[in-house]
Amino acid sequence: MSLALSGIGVSRGVAIGKAHIILRGSIEVLESAIPEHLVDHEIVRFLNAVDSARLQLQAIQKRIPANTGVDIAAFIETHLLMLDDAMLVTIPVDLIREHHCNAEWALKLQRDAVVSVFEKMDDAYLRTRRDDIDHVINRIQRFLLDSNQSDDKGENIVMDNAIVLAYDLTPAESVMLEHQGIKAFATECGGPLSHTAIHARSMQIPAMVGTHGLQRYIQDGETVILDGLQGVLIAAADEQTLDYYRERQEKEFQRQIELAKLVDMPAVTRDGTAVRLMANIELPEDIDAVSRTSANGVGLYRTEFLYMNRLQPPDEEEQYDCYVGVIEALKGKPLTIRTLDMGADKQAGGIGVCSNSALGLRAIRLCLKNRSQFTPQLRAILRASAHGPVRLMIPMLSNTSELHEVLALINDTKISLQRESMAFAADIQIGGMIEVPAAALTAADFASHLDFLSIGTNDLIQYTLAIDRVDDEVNYLYDPLHPAVLRLIKMTIDAGKVAGIPVAMCGEMAGDPRYTRLLLGMGLSEFSMHHTALTEVKSVIHSSSIEALKPLVQELLDHTRTGQIPERIESLNQNTF
Q1: Within-domain flag for 184
Q2: In this predicted model, what pLDDT tens digit does every residue of 386-404 receive, in sequence order?
């Protein structure tokens, strides 16, 4: 009889393949006594497991293309270095000798001791390195526990056509798995806006999160079906079910062929309204993919990735060189650079954040607090603006006094550059992100002082609804269609129109084709998203009429109760204009 597990579908598509379970979050270790005459054998067993883990990482490292982001390369290199560290290798050996305990237990004791030290550190970035400790130790433990990997020494780790089932995956881990040839993945935890979910969409493979019971009900190696659209994982499927999903796969393949035909076509509605489709990028390496999708430019460049996986922040020259490289690669298309947005779920060395960074010292608040680190970034952005069209965007504004402080600092930076005879675009456009309900409610005030606004829906939704979008316990409440969220979005768009400045959207909502018609009807004319979503959103734009959508969307905003909105949106999307 078939078994179906439900979760949250985060990347559409259907995959059929063998389950490969790496539920590292569920490793259990028991203590056992080792007789005196077997202690040396136990030590050899431990060291062999360390060697196997090292060989496995080295094999993964060789398979990753040279143009993979530096954060992924640094992730693997860090873990390789840790496998040579006495902290994780020598001390467990000493514990085995001293306590006559099994290698698994010695490694667990050392893990607990190290993590305890890390958690007491004042530096938030260093506290987060406990995750690296767990990743490396769990990799060794899997070899010790003979979890279907201990005999291959890492050379035989290709997982072509595998469907990975895991407790959770970091972005770096998911990239490593991508280059090992996986077909899809499902995780026990995570929400629709977790980094795991967002990265799955960028990989363009079917994926689901929040799939409880994976380890309990699914056997390693059995054939499973993963439906990333509906959020369903099926095991022990009969032939009729398999045929149905094979047909779904073929339809999806044909749909992708049709979407590919839209790449070089302009985004214009049926009634002739041009819509700007921009791309979000995180690394300079993303530009090649952006160019292939014919985006109108970059609507969001997340600069914090320059600061991650390092102990010291990048200096002005490093940032300047990086920005100029992106500008030149865009060949005249505009680049919107967001100033540093550290805090919340992103932390970096040399930049401290508070314990509750989602509501505390993050983004522009953190930058204004650390001007010695913020000013070099402003200088680098301004200098780079001399090389092509650049817009500067300020994240997480919440009041206009904060904005005036930033604008004054930008003006002082311009004066300083003039004195040094350094070129920059004097008329560089300055914009602000609307991510906080307070900013949306006072969007008209911000619009009167800025050249453009950009709605960051990921944070706007979680702050409006008072839920952590990556918390597995409450992420089911994350709702882009909540009336309060829609009203804040509409309020921001209207404020931009009154002020005569453009309003864009750069959150995940902008790249979700289910909401494209809704946003068009609300008056949004600039969308910024991951490049993989561009053609799908473009296809919706081509089939839509702004004039027909406006009254329907206005009626929805005026009269719809919360429970009715999804049905109205579905009806809106099925309409032919």
Answers
A1: yes
A2: 999 999 999 999 999 999 9
